[in-house]
Amino acid sequence: ETGVTQTPRHLVMGMTNKKSLKCEQHLGHNAMYWYKQSAKKPLELMFVYSLEERVENNSVPSRFSPECPNSSHLFLHLHTLQPEDSALYLCASSQKREYNEQFFGPGTRLTVL
Amino acid sequence: GQNIDQPTEMTATEGAIVQINCTYQTSGFNGLFWYQQHAGEAPTFLSYNVLDGLEEKGRFSSFLSRSKGYSYLLLKELQMKDSASYLCAAVDSNYQLIWGAGTKLIIKP
Fold first, then answer.
1. Would you say B72 and B21 are in contact if contact means Cβ atoms under 8 Å apart?
2. Segment A22-25 long-range contacts (CB within 8 Å, at least 24 positions apart)
3. Which of A31, A102, A110, B10 has the fewest Cβ atoms surrounding its Cβ within 10 A?
4. Whole-number pLDDT of residue A23
5. pLDDT at site B61
6. Is B91:B72 a contact under the CB 8 Å cutoff?
7. What confidence tier does A33 reach under pLDDT thresholds 50, 70, 90?
8. What is B58-75 written as a DSSP string?
9. pLDDT of residue A17
């Protein structure tokens, strides 16, 4: 595998479910990101990790909980989501936090019923 | 506040040239990115400008004017596969990317 991979590619969940999104990067990068992409809106940065430390949390609701166990893996744990959380969730990585060319995964299309 | 403006949608003809504009207002500036995103796929890097001027890369060129807070992406010899969304993102003083909503480019035969 090369680049940035994400699983699952599609996820449908009820508002009371708990699920997790997984991201893995095979590029040897030190920074990883979670974005939310909704139709016709700019990418919304949710979380940033640099060298496995969270460096940014842009006022994201607590029903989204990130986890970065090592520099290659990033998770987004979901619980008690709302229908307005339905979106494409993109993971990205970059060589380091200050070097911004970001490489994106294919995303997880999330639908909350 | 920080803001990126780019047109929502543009239409062009196969073989023609199209210019997609982007204006930005950020707290500090550390460069501007253009990404391409095909429907249902990941955004992919096209270009990065930090100095004023034109950067050419094959059929695609990107221009930056820091004094005007303005950039454009120029696509020449358009092909059907260029139908995609084009995302502009400016880097602020904290090295955070500020994203535009993207321009959907439709190529007609």
1. yes
2. A22/A73, A22/A74, A22/A75, A23/A73, A23/A74, A23/A75, A23/A76, A23/A91, A23/A105, A24/A72, A24/A73, A24/A74, A25/A72, A25/A74, A25/A91, A25/A93, A25/A103, A25/A105
3. B10
4. 98
5. 97
6. no
7. very high
8. TTEEEEEETTTTEEEEEE
9. 87
At A85, is the secondary structure helix, strand, or coil? helix
Contact A42 B101 (CB under 8 A): yes
Residue A13 is encoded by which pair of tokens?
Answer: 């969940």
First to last CA, chain A: 32
Nearest to A43 among B8, B91, B99 (CB): B99
Under DSSP, the state recorded for B81 is G
* pLDDT value at A18 more than 80: yes
Gap from A42 CA to chain B (nearest CA, Å)? 4
* Both tokens assigned to B26: 């950020």
The sign of the dihedral angle between the CA atoms of A6, A7, A12, A16 is negative
CA distance B46 to B86: 9
Q: Is B42 on the interface with A (CB under 8 A)?
A: yes
| Strand, coil or helix: B82 | helix
* Per-residue pLDDT at A1: 56
